[in-house]
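Appendix B. Chain record.
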Amino acid sequence: MGDTGSSPAQNVWDSNFVGVWHMAQSPTDTVKNSTSSAGISLNNVDHCNISYNNVSNNNRGIYGNATTNNTILNNTVLNNKQFGIFLKNSRNNTIMNNIASNNAVGGIGLYSSRSNVVEENIVSSNSIENGLGGICLYFSDSNSIRKNNASSDPYGGIVLTFSNNNVIEDNTISNNTYGIYLESSCNDTIKKNTASSNNKSGIYLVWSSLNNMIKDNTANSNNMIGIFLSDSSSNNTIINNNASFNEDFGICLLSSDYNIITGNYANSNNASGIVLSYSSSNNTIKNNTACFNYFGIFLHSSNYNTITGNYASSNQVTGISIGDLYLYSHLTFPAILIF
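Structure tokens predicted for this chain:
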């Protein structure tokens, strides 16, 4: 499979069974309305360059299975019935500078794939039919997700499910239901992202997401929680993040143990800056700033936690409180904890 040519001529593949099979395209090619697996399909190939294509109204836009060392660059992938770009059982590929929008299931997806780079893509308004997310990893390890813009997705901007040892860095994620969502995913690094102005949580770890590093992120002005760990998401480190101006909590742990929360700013949240609830035990809350909230740091039904060296001033009620969540008279429970 050769590299992309430099010819400015435009080819059009319209209403074919498969738009393009095992083929690297010339710049400004248009592939649309194919009725089979994808507009552009790669199967067990390597060192292809798929660049400068417009791929729309197909089942999948660009699809690869068992591919290695390919480059998917500067494509516009719109209005496809499943994913815009989807790689399965693939490794060492680069997906860069693409636009993936209005695809029904998701923008960019990796399934059982490892050591790929997903970088500097614009992913917006995908998952329009109860889909899965903007950038989605399933059973995929050791990938790098960097410098992408993921917005306006009805589910999640960046979604990891059963995916481990990935790096999610320097992405901008806004106006999604969840910004960054990890489910049953471990040993991932989430750092230097801006996950703000999402409809529920900026960063959300759920269902035994363990041993993750959440560092140097901004999770502000979300409609519920800045950073949220629930359902036995334990042994994670939350360090040097800013989780402020959220509608409910800055940082919230729900039924999650042995986490370290240190060096964070959790200010000006409408409820608590930091809250531990429903048997969140043996956590360490150290050297955080939690000011101008309703409560600074609040514990409910949580035992054996260590709270030390925190700065919690100018909160409406108390700096550090141990009590009943129903004291939040201006919130409705338990609805606030149904996600």
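Further analysis of this model is presented in Appendix C.
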